[in-house]
Amino acid sequence: MDVLLSLPIISYLLSPASASWSTSLNIFFFYVQWTTFVLTHTPFRVRLIGSLATRIILFLIPSLVSLLFDTGVPSIAESIKFGGRASLAPRNARLLTRQLGLVLVNLLCVTLLEGASHLAFRYVVGENDFNPTALLPLPWQLAKHLVLMMTGREVLTYYIHRNLLHSSGAIGRLHKRFSHARSAAPYSLLVFADHPIPFLLHHFFPMYLPAIALRPHMVTYFLFLALCTVEETITTSGYSVVPGIIMGGMTRRRAIHYASGGDCNFGAWGVLDWANDTGRGRDVLDDVRAEAEKHNVKERSADKLDSGVSALQGGIDKLTNGDDGGKRRSSRLRSKRAGN
Predict the structure, then answer these.
(1) What is the DSSP string of 225-252?
(2) Which residue among 80, 280, 284, 299 has its CA within the 20 to 30 Å range from the CA of 253?
(3) pLDDT at res. 286
(4) At what angle do helices 205-214 and 139-160 cross, to 10 degrees?
(5) pLDDT (tens digit, 9 = 90+) per residue, 212-250?
(6) Within 13 Å and on the Cβ side, how many CA atoms surround 98?
(7) In angstroms, rounded to a whole number, what is the distance separating the alpha carbons of residues 58 and 120?
(8) How far is the C-alpha of 131 from the C-alpha of 34, rounded, in Å?
């Protein structure tokens, strides 16, 4: 636990006073923590600790909390799940124990693969696969790498998911047996509750290959890993109350994918599903239009509110000027009467 808390991003999030600091102090604090972390650990340990901590904090813990909520208060959980009660996690202790064991096995496998890929790259090339220096990446470079890696991940995820995991071959049968044992909306634990081979093909290689092609800073890689982990955890939750039109649409399409037995909606974002006509339900373009209309409505409401405030202020000014004029006229009348 001490090692996990030594991660700069973890200590930053757990700091109770961080919300009141300025952006500059936040960046400085993160820089100090990151520098201390990379100087006190080897790049190999930084890679293992960072990737493991990210998946534990952003996937395992939220998934267990969600599972506890679904099984502990099903009467409430079913009201916010796609498909209602049929989509709740099974209240079968033996089955859930097996799934949790499979999750831990896959978590161990992906962590070992993170370390093995680091060592293999260093052995072949003679360098670290990702830059572990204390110097942080520039914001523009970080954003550019994130966009490129996200795009590459989406392409690889779609075609691997569609052509390998849902094929008639051995890998497809393994994926169907472990990940699609029931036809209902998923719960977050199912992200890792797959056979190790299809799991790594689905959740590790589509993320790692674009990253190793760019070889970004390790902070960028950890941020990329964190974004992907949060996305997978939320969109596989099966909840119909996920905030945001875009994220809610991704969650709905993932629920349809599981409920249909894996016949549609193979991508994470839905762009390639729309392009290849493999989507079902409202597509990503509908979500984008709804999001745009939502913001336009807000802008129009803000404009109307501003015009209303301006009109009200104008009315107040007129009343104020009118009162002043009335007072001045009354004063002049009183002066005339006094003179008479």
Answers:
(1) HHHHHHHHHHHTS-BTT-SSHHHHHHHH
(2) 299
(3) 77
(4) 140
(5) 999 999 999 999 999 999 999 999 999 999 888 888 889
(6) 9
(7) 27
(8) 13
Cα angle 8, 9, 10; round to 5 = 90
Three-point CA angle 238, 243, 244, nearest 5°: 115
pTM above 0.70, yes or no: yes
Question: In 3-state terms, what secondary structure has residue 286?
Answer: helix
Tens-place pLDDT, residues 1-39:
444 444 554 444 444 444 444 666 777 778 888 888 888
Residue 311, classified by CB atoms within 10 Å of its CB into exposed (0-12), middle (13-18) or buried (19+), is exposed
End-to-end CA distance of the chain: 95
Residue with tokens 């008479």: 340
Helix axes 61-72, 93-125, angle to 10 degrees: 170
Element (H, E) at 31: helix 23-40
CB 220 within 8 A of CB 145: yes
Exposure string for 107-140, b = 16+ CB within 10 A, e = fewer: bebbbebbeebbeebeeeeeebbbbbeeebbeee
Per DSSP, 144 falls in state H
Tokens of 4: 């996990």
Number of C-beta neighbours around residue 34 at 10 A: 23
Q: Which secondary structure element, helix H or strand E, spans residue 275, and what is its range?
A: helix 271-276
Segment holding 208, helix H or strand E: helix 205-214
Indicate the residue type of 46. V
Distance CA 256, CA 238 (A): 9
Q: What is the largest CA-CA distance in the chain?
A: 113
